[in-house]
Write a structure and sequence with these properties.
The structure holds three protein chains of three kinds.
Chain A: H1 15-37, H2 48-61, H3 63-95, H4 97-113, H5 119-126, H6 130-154, H7 158-166, H8 171-209, H9 214-223, H10 227-260
Helix pairs in contact in A: 2-10, 3-6, 3-8, 4-6, 5-6, 6-8, 7-8, 8-9, 8-10, 9-10
Chain B: H1 19-42, H2 52-64, H3 67-99, H4 101-116, H5 119-130, H6 134-158, H7 162-170, H8 175-213, H9 218-227, H10 231-264
Chain C: H1 10-37, E1 49-52, H2 59-68, E2 70-75, E3 78-82, H3 86-93, E4 100-103
Antiparallel strand pairs in C: 1-3, 1-4, 2-3
Classes of the chains: A mainly alpha, B mainly alpha, C alpha+beta.
């Protein structure tokens, strides 16, 4: 061994990082080398290089940005609209115990079929296109959030109401100090759950009833056997969800955990 | 259970149907009435906005022609197989990753990555790879169930009280015994939570998968009805979907939850994920 | 009835048992119906059959007819299937929505309508 050359001190590599990357490397290698070892036709398994170049082409031509933007716009609109109506309405319903008990089975039923099951109906009513997709997203978010909100209010321990009232709180005070903070945890959880369902509803609805957007782009490519676009779409869908989740919900959870201690 | 007066049912004063249940039934009936009323007000043809009676007669027709029962059973079989597969894998990997630092480091990141790719996104590729039908659907739906079960099992395993494991080991338990008598029972409420979340996503996912990748099933019924402008069938499908979930929830999910929490008296430990 | 399991598990346990029982019953009833429906037919050499239904068949039913053999058409409450596969025919006969299955004589006036 030649010790004459002085090796610079190697930075310490985190062993966890390496082990974690290993599966990715294996998958990528298997993907790239698969054509060498098997008869899989190119249309079924496009090479990583092909997917990458398709990505570059679509990015440069602007078509990728427009599809992604269309989807995100739709999601944001649906999410804000759905929650904006659902949460106040849910609170209003849940405040009166009789009304809440009357509507809970109905809300639960609609929550279980929310979203995807409405796509065909939306097609009949609004035709294929962005309107139907938006309707489905709003529908999903609305029923998901309203159910969470109502359940959230119902799970507030009754002793808190009595405590507030024994201090002479008016109805509005009770709402402000007991109901809203008490239900808030469940509402925030509901925000996250409704986003998880809403995201799936977006992609799924675009596939069936859309004319643009990532979901549409991904399924449409199946017809033309453009598998590289399908794979690209999938990766994009994954990356977008990661961004959405990290951006929106980790902060929310941090706030709740920090302020109220453990999430209930 | 101890004989606390709060727990003993008071058979004398207790009504057969609680107030909440009466109110709930009233709610369902009111919705049906509101529906019928809206049909009169909106006054559009049945293929656009069907009335309850249209939907009911479509239901009868689908039963008589044998279509509904077969679609229901197809969906049920796909659902059961998918959920069982997903739970099996999720449980196995959850335990593996929870109990072994090596496996956690190796598989953690890539599982997190694939978790981000929702099952809905896999269906087009699966269709290209293996075509339409049962296998595609089962793979996609088992995939959905896998992640919540894995993550919740992981949380359950990681929050087992160390003192219990140590106690068992001082008594000379083997690793297998520790697993079976301490870790799994302690993690069970979390595992059940994971199962419940997975079952929910799986059900929605199944209906979607049947819409684009199957020729039978409730999802297909809903989709096909819209293609042939038989909106009454679409609504039958939607109601069947709700009823199916109601049965799954009431007859399987909730009782199992009750049984594990009631039996072990454990509070659910909290982790992060949905 | 006392069950060998903790009462908390009663509901899911009975549900699963109930489902299994229903499935087995359905299969058994199906087999019996099938045998009865096909009573007068010799299945040995791919018979031509006439299937009677009390409704107009939809694509769902036509696909099943095509699985059985060469589907010739529907008229007057009856469907003709030539050269039927015995196993598929038995499977078709298990369905409760079939009114009757009879052997088909080739030169049958009914079909000329």
């Amino acid at each position: 061994m030649n010790h004459a050359i002085q090796m610079p001190q190697k930075p310490r590599i985190n062993p966890a990082l390496v082990t974690g990357l290993l599966p990715f490397i294996v998958v990528l290698a298997a993907w790239a080398l698969a054509p060498l070892f098997s008869d899989i036709p190119a249309y079924k398994l496009p090479s990583p290089a092909k997917v990458w170049s398709t990505f570059q082409d679509m990015l440069l031509s602007g078509s990728l940005i427009s599809e992604v933007w269309a989807s995100l716009q739709r999601l944001a609109t649906g999410y804000i609209l759905g929650n904006l109506i659902a949460i106040p309405l849910g609170l209003a319903i849940a405040l009166n115990r009789a009304v809440a008990e009357t509507l809970t089975p109905v809300l639960s039923f609609f929550q279980s079929i929310a979203g995807i099951a409405w796509v065909p109906l939306a097609i009949i009513w609004f035709g294929v296109g962005g309107g139907s997709v938006l309707f489905v997203i709003v529908n999903t978010i609305f029923f998901s959030s309203i159910y969470s909100t109502v359940i959230g209010v119902q799970s507030i321990p009754p002793v808190l109401y009595r405590a507030a009232q024994s201090h002479g709180a008016s109805r509005w005070d009770v709402i402000k100090t007991v109901v809203i903070p008490g239900a808030l945890v469940q509402i925030l959880v509901g925000l996250r759950t409704s986003m998880a369902y809403g995201w799936r509803a977006l992609v799924a609805a675009e596939m069936i009833a859309g004319t643009n957007g990532i979901g549409y782009m991904t399924l449409e490519a199946v017809q033309w056997y453009q598998t590289e676009i399908v794979v690209l779409g999938m990766i994009l869908i994954g990356v977008l969800w990661l961004i959405l989740d990290r951006l929106l919900f980790v902060p929310i959870e941090r706030v709740t955990v920090r302020r109220w201690g453990l999430v209930s | 259970m101890t004989n606390s007066t709060n727990n003993l049912p008071n058979m004398r004063g207790r009504p057969l149907v609680s107030t909440a249940q009466w109110r709930g039934t009233l709610g369902v009936v009111s919705i049906l009435v509101a529906w019928q009323f809206s049909v009169w007000v909106i006054a559009l043809p049945a293929y656009f906005y069907p009335a309850p009676k249209d939907v009911f007669s479509a239901f009868i027709e689908l039963m008589q022609k044998g279509i509904l029962l077969e679609y229901l059973s197809d969906s049920a079989v796909r659902y059961s197989v998918s959920v069982a597969t997903g739970v099996g894998f999720g449980l196995t990997f959850g335990l593996l990753i929870g109990l072994s630092r090596f496996w956690s480091r190796l598989l953690g990141p890539i599982i997190n990555f694939f978790y981000a790719i929702v099952e809905v996104a896999w269906i087009p590729l699966l269709v290209i790879w293996i075509g339409y039908g049962f296998n595609t659907i089962v793979i996609a739906i088992a995939y959905v169930v896998f992640f919540p079960v894995l993550y919740n099992t992981l949380t359950g395993v990681q929050t087992v009280k160390l003192v219990l494991i140590n106690a068992m080991q001082t008594l000379g338990a083997t690793r297998w015994q520790v697993l079976v008598t301490v870790i799994i029972p302690s993690a069970l409420p979390n595992i059940i939570t994971g199962f419940r979340v997975g079952a929910g996503f799986a059900f929605r996912g199944l209906i979607f998968a049947e819409m684009i990748a199957a020729g039978s099933g409730i999802g297909f019924l809903i989709f096909d009805g819209s293609t042939t402008r038989q909106t009454d069938r679409v609504v039958v499908g939607m109601i069947m979907m709700g009823v199916m979930w109601l049965l799954i929830d009431r007859l399987l999910l909730r009782p199992v939850e009750q049984a594990t929490i009631v039996r072990w008296g454990l509070v659910r430990n909290q982790g992060g994920n949905t | 009835m006392t069950l060998p399991i903790h009462p908390a598990w009663r509901t899911p346990f009975l549900t699963v048992i109930g489902l299994v029982v229903v499935l087995i019953l359905a299969a058994v009833v199906g087999r019996i119906t099938s045998a009865r429906t096909l009573a007068g037919i010799d299945l040995a050499d791919r018979p031509d059959v006439v299937v009677s239904l009390s409704f107009t068949p939809e694509r769902f039913h036509l696909e099943k007819f095509q699985d059985v053999g060469r589907y010739q058409g529907w008229s007057d409450g009856q469907a003709v299937i030539l050269s039927s596969d015995p196993e598929e025919l038995r499977r078709l006969a298990r369905n409760y929505w079939i009114d009757a299955i009879e052997p088909h004589e080739v030169h049958n006036d009914k079909l000329d309508k």
